[in-house]
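Homework help thread (please don't just give me the answer)

Our assignment gives two proteins as sequence + structure token strings and asks us to describe the second one. The first is just a warm-up. Here they are:
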Amino acid sequence: MFDREDFVWKGLTLHYGRRKAPVLTLIADATYPHLFRIAYPDGWTSTLANLTRAKDAAYEHARYLLRGQRQAAGPLAAETTPARMDPLKDKVLVFVTHKGGDF
């Protein structure tokens, strides 16, 4: 669906095709400048990783983000698709605690 060849790195920004706006951006950490974080469009940042691992993760995260955009923009938009069942809806979660000893 979205191959690595579809993406282009321009410095530390990852672009899809010829789009001017980056899908994701890598930012160097202030304390450890040789480590990077992925900056997401909503302002969230990932954990630290070296440049190679950060770029590899950015590809996968970009593919995930774009897949969500494509599905929402498709012919079956969210308002026309049947509601999906939430597996935890109407379920009661029970937490059991154990004091002392082994199980």
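The one we have to describe:
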Amino acid sequence: MAQFRSGDGFPGMGTPCLTTPPILQSLVSAPALSNGVFSLSVPTQSGRVYELEYKRLLDETNWTVLALVAGSGRPEVLIDPTADGAQRFYRIRRW
């Protein structure tokens, strides 16, 4: 839900300023593991950057970072070329 701040364009109150909360989830499609490469597709926005990260165990402190992908406004494929068949937990970061 969009939120408005003070000075949202009411007469005599200045320029409207719209803020939106961050996206906490996204639709992921076409997850696949083939020949040691894991891939999935995510919808993207132009001007945003997307990153696939993984952990082998959820209680590990750090995520392993994979390549960055620039958003195009179309679905983009994120790839883990090092998927060796062992269990991994993935997350996608966007900024």
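TA reply:
I won't write it for you, but here's a hint about the kind of observation we're looking for: The radius of gyration is 18 Å.
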